[in-house]
Amino acid sequence: MNDLCMTKESYLVNSYRENIAKLKLEFSNALKERDSAVRAAQIAVYNTTRITRFLAILSEPAPIKTLQDRLLALLSELFASDIVVILDPVGTGTFISLATLGIPETLDGYCFSNAVNGHVATVLKTNDVIISNQADTDKNVDNVLRDLGAKSVIMVPLTTAYGLSRGVMILARCTYSPFSNTDKDLLMTMGYRIGLSIEQTQRNTQLEKIIETGYEITRLFDISEIGNEAVRAFSSIFCTDAATIVLKNSKSIPECIAWVGLEPGQVDVCVTVTESLLNDYLFAATRPYCTPDLHDTAKRLSLELPRNFPVRALMAIPLFRNRHVYGLLYGLRFSAVPFSQEASQLAALFATQISVSIENARLYQSR
Predict the structure, then answer these.
(1) Are 248 and 355 contacting, i.e. CB atoms less than 8 angstroms apart?
(2) Structural domain count, the chain
(3) How many CB atoms lie within 10 A of CB 289?
(4) Which pLDDT score, from 0 to 100, does residue 284 have?
(5) Which residue, 281, 263, 275, 282, is CA-closest to 304?
């Protein structure tokens, strides 16, 4: 009987201890969940504050250069970054930085690498973030960043309303302090807003220049003068290395009437390209045509280009007379930096002004 009582008592004690241990574990887990929820709430508040400060700067009515300087300073503070760089290859046509912080003034105008395997070119192509937390030994990180002591680097696409990359934002730390997934998500959101802001600013500037140039060109009545002024302005407005106008003559044979940035032999190649494009059934001659690599396109057209022909990216804008295409206005880049859809749409507006001016000049000269 005593043994039975002792066994029952022992069972009750063990059960009591198990319940106590279980309660302690549940209480500990509850505390951890509470602490985790508090930390999540704190991070959410902190991130909301960062976004709010970021949007406040973008909404300020200040010159774009001032906004860029303030924006880079804020990004440096919010993400503890020693170096901040904004590149806009699609908009500017080059990998020269649009704005920098932490880069010495002696390196102003430095052109970042556009190597195919480099991180900058990869972000631009894939529209995805790249984080390198061993940047000092990462050969795909640009040399200037490694020379400046960057240890942790994040590269974020600057996307547009069309969801495509127009540029890259680079943040670098000179310590082995990795960028987190939270940093990545926030910077992706900020990259989109920065991309839209740059796109809108460039569009407004281009529209102003198109209107101004159109006014100047309508005052000309010589086709050669119109062509020369048009290609000069077109190259400047759309940040190209070269530009040319190829029109069909009275015998429907394409010939170049104006160019800038090309050698005479290279102009002849553009005429050959025009013949192929206008005769190719896949080419939609009634709307702008863009390619990031003309040499690849030439293979599809069974067209042989000289190996030393420098043009890579091409934007061809149809010129109309009586609703028929009678020529092309070209924007040409010597690097494989594509033209944006926004740029081709604005270029079509510019081409309409050129077509009207050329037709007016023809009518004037036929008097």
Answers:
(1) no
(2) 2
(3) 19
(4) 54
(5) 275
